[in-house]
Amino acid sequence: MTIDWLFAFVWIGGWGAFLIAAIWLVRRSERRLSVGPGDPYAPIAPGLDGSEPMAAYLDRMTGALALPAGDVAEVRAELIDHLQDSTATLEAEGFEREAAIREALGRLGPPAELGRQLRAAHQSNRRLLAGAGGGVFAAGGGFVLGYLGGAALALLLALVLAAVAAVLTLVGVRLPDIINSSSGGYAGNSLMLSVMLAVAAAFATRYAVRTSAGLSRRAPRTVAVFWAAAAVLGFGWYALFGLRGQQSWLCVAGEACIPLAAVAGAFVRIERPMPHVGRWAIVCSAISVVFLVLGLAAVSGSSVIGTGQVHEYQPADLHLDTVAPAAPAAWLPADDYVVTGQDGGQASATHIDAQVISPSSGASASLAFATVLINWRDLRFEAWHGQPTWQDSGAIGIDTHYTSAFAVQPAFLQGKSLQADFHFERMRDARSWWVVLTGVGPDGSRYRLGDGSGNWTDFYGSAWDWLTAPQ
Amino acid sequence: MSGTDGAKRGVANPAFVRRQVINALDGEVMTGPAIFRRIRERSEEGSAASGDSVQPNDQSLFYPALHSLEAGWKLQATWQSDASGANHRTYRRRRLLPRRPAWTIRT
Description:
The complex is a heterodimer.
Chain A: H1 5-30, H2 52-63, H3 69-92, H4 97-107, H5 111-122, H6 125-170, E1 180-181, E2 185-186, H7 188-216, H8 220-242, E3 245-246, H9 249-267, H10 279-298, E4 337-343, E5 350-357, H11 368-375, E6 377-388, E7 395-398, E8 407-410, E9 412-414, E10 417-422, E11 431-440, E12 446-457, E13 460-461, H12 463-468
Helix pairs in contact in A: 1-6, 1-7, 2-5, 3-4, 6-7, 6-10, 7-8, 7-9, 8-9
Chain B: H1 4-9, H2 14-25, E1 30-31, H3 32-50, H4 62-71, E2 75-81, E3 87-93
Antiparallel strand pairs in B: 1-3, 2-3
Helix pairs in contact in B: 2-3, 2-4
């Protein structure tokens, strides 16, 4: 394998620069949202005799200001500075102290009007555009960072769960297989992806809200409403229609958490600064992963999937007579038998074909079905629920819990074989299936032609496909 | 806040106040009260010359004008400490170039 170093350098460098720029933008923007101890205006207080009217004036002005905390502190500090200067000047002109304060406050005008005008001055259209653009940029960076963090979190969770399951199995506790079971469907990959995307969505909206609030000089909760609405639309659409893969109720529930996580990221403790991940947190996480892996290696002799015993099935175990009785040999080509085959991926239609195999030649007989069709009518493929094999990765025979086929397709003669397509990947409860070719014989009864074939197909599609799929 | 033009109209005009602030700064770094004093001095000089009545004590539009100019990238605001350690918010005109190029100056 050759590595295109230039491409790798540009790719990694580009993404790295993007992430660094996004983090820098968030850090710079969110400085406005709180008053830190290092801010130059933080320690300023009235500190004047008779400052109560000033404080009351500033409080009323602040009530109409509706700006981020850092801006409010700056405006208050600046006005205090101005009022101190004005009062001193008026006193020098001969005003009494209290009269000087009243006059200085009166010259600034009504406090609510001053606050409203200051807010309008700060919340300019230019800053609104900057906030929107910066928010989109920061959301992109937050999504990538959250995706990486979510991947680490999902892996950590998987390791912890696997370690706990291994230990419990060692001590003899029998655990239900919720990841890969006939009741829950395959959920492992989709669940991990949901965790990663939920964390990414939460980071994206949080980065966007704090950046756009800081840049547009608006209160975070005011901005959060718009970002939450955008996140519900964007991530909601993606979770419902865009995210395709193996589905189950557990997966759909996990995917529904993606827009919810985005909304939570926009509102929950949004006034607080972003959590700072220090070097000790990274070191501790790395050590935890190493210990978990070592622990897993120590208990790796046990299996949490099954007992490890291979079952051997007899023809009677297939319960094929549940479908229909076998066709009398007299009505079938002499010495030949019908073999049903299957083709298709987990994400597409399953193609079924039935051919007549001649044991003598070992090859399919091209004209055999034409002979069969003379005596038979209404040939069709019936899909029955199959018995899951011991490791849930296939099917063997008919599941006798069911008394009818869950899907039927007419068999069409194409070339040497009878064919039909089944969309098992779009059926919620298909999973383990067994397809048998049946037809109505000369006596008017339906018979089974051959033993059929089976497999395991998980539902594949979006959450919407799952919710609207036929049972 | 008022000046010659504003006083003639009898109403405080935000755009007029912003223009006064820009003119008052004139390349210097000043605090809000210092800018206001300079504007008042210039208004009084202007009104004395023209005989107009001025309203030098109306400050209701002064800080909105300052903050509006800062939001519009016309001014740059920073916090500076004086000799006593007190912090003051200072303003200066924001320019793309540190000094006006010589070829733009007409003599």
